[in-house]
Amino acid sequence: MKLKKIAVSEEGFIFDPETGNSFTVSSTGLFILERLKKGMSLDEILRALLDEFEVDEKTARKDLADFVQQLRLLGLWEDGKR
Amino acid sequence: MKKPYEKPVIVKLQMGFVSKAGMSALDKLVRAEIDGVSVDELVERFGSPLFVFSERRILDRIKYAKAVFEGYYPHVEFSWSYKTNYLDAICAIFHRQGFTAEVVSDFEYEKAKRLGVPGDKIIFNGPFKPKSVLERAVSEGARVNIDSFEEIALLEEIAGNMGKTVSVGIRINMDTGVRPQWQRFGFNLESGQAMDAVKRIAAGGKLTISGLHCHQGTFILDADAYRIEVEKMLSFAAELERTFGFEIEYIDIGGGFPSKSRLKGVYLPTDVVVPSLKEYAERIGMAFISRMEKPHSPYRLVIESGRALIDEAGFLVATVLSVKRLPDGTRAYVIDAGVNLLYTSYWYHFNVEVSRAVSGTFEPSVIYGPLCMNIDVIEESVMLPPLNPGDKLILSPVGAYNVTQWMQFITYRPSVVLIREDGRVDVIRERESLNDIVARERLPEDLKL
Lengths: 82, 449
Hints:
The complex is a heterodimer.
Chain A: E1 2-3, E2 7-8, E3 13-15, E4 22-25, H1 27-37, H2 42-52, E5 53-54, H3 57-73, E6 77-78
Antiparallel strand pairs in A: 1-6, 2-3, 3-4
Helix pairs in contact in A: 2-3
Chain B: E1 3-4, E2 10-12, E3 33-34, E4 37-38, H1 39-46, E5 50-54, H2 55-72, E6 76-81, H3 88-96, E7 100-103, H4 106-115, E8 122-124, H5 131-139, E9 143-146, H6 149-162, E10 166-173, E11 187-188, H7 193-204, E12 207-213, H8 224-244, E13 250-252, E14 262-263, H9 270-273, H10 277-291, E15 300-303, H11 307-310, E16 314-325, E17 331-335, E18 348-349, E19 351-354, E20 363-368, E21 377-384, E22 392-396, H12 402-405, E23 416-419, E24 425-429, H13 434-438
Helix pairs in contact in B: 2-10, 5-6, 8-10
């Protein structure tokens, strides 16, 4: 399970070279994507979110799971079958 | 110092799609208060969901309607369409502004009387007027608009029993270009049925016709349909006076004027689609003035407007209960108000506003009600920022029909409050309790647990 190869701009503009689709992300979404690209695990990202933002763990954990679900639905998350 | 948090969201960009930048007018989506009263405070005091009506908006709308209609034609009687919203407080606001009551059933007649409306200030319409209530209406001097041949016979019987001639109106239907054409109410004009009804009444000798009534439909977007309606009614009235010697006093054109609700299937903004009330007033008023044969004893123009006067004065405040992501990626919110409270959601889109500014990317979202039923969808797709449980949504306009057609189903109907002109907030209908719902039930002795 990992993030597909995508281009992430500093402003939150995402480009998927395989499909040509483009996306925008919120600032926290960008924060997560940048760390996923670096290969950080979801647990590490959760801790990073809690360190960086004014948010409780329950909310952050739920939102992070939801964000991964969004990536999966948008075809940006590979389940490692290939 | 940690950074402020917003929910992580990723949205696919599409050609022609409203981008985050395009939706940056976030303020437009925020309604922190209604008439100066904080939405959050309203919920704290009266619970959620909560219907909120604005007295000021109602009064402003009445003032506007009177000004535009009387500007074109001075002899106007406004009659409040009870079925649109028959809460006592709402009706009382209209009656205090000189509106008569337009009722269509035994219940509505009795409700108007109970509120203190005199019989001669009540217009009794509708396809079903039970005999006992019809007798009461006739004896109390209400204006009855006849819907069928059966009703002619019934009224003649009542007139005979009372030993007097009863003055009535007849309801007619006609082609004004509006489709679908409403043909089930009253007597059809073009086929000659309306004239047959008049002949029948004249031959009976117990009733006299003093008015004509027509209600051509609902949410009519073509103002010119009213010009056609008025012209046809006026020539029919003239014919009745000439041929039968009836003295017509009033021409009742019904209602049907639209509000700023957005009809489903219509993609243009309501400001483009919905003509202003002034356009209707102009067509109607000018038709009266130009066709009037007796300016010294003019007909009274009766207008039974409902929706156009109350819809935008009503709001429903609801609370987000849970947040879901559907398998197709759509964000979904479950709120505490469903189609049980928002009957009009089957036909209209609502403006959806949030009680506080929420930062984050807008996403097309679906709003579900709390009912355990698949049909309970308030909005299929509305652009919303990422909301959390507890956030308050304000849906509008909901002032017309919802608090009459709402249904009691698996839960209680909420409180209804009225924000007064001076900013006071009065409860005008309390939240239901278990006893309100079970009071009429009877459990047979042998079934008791």
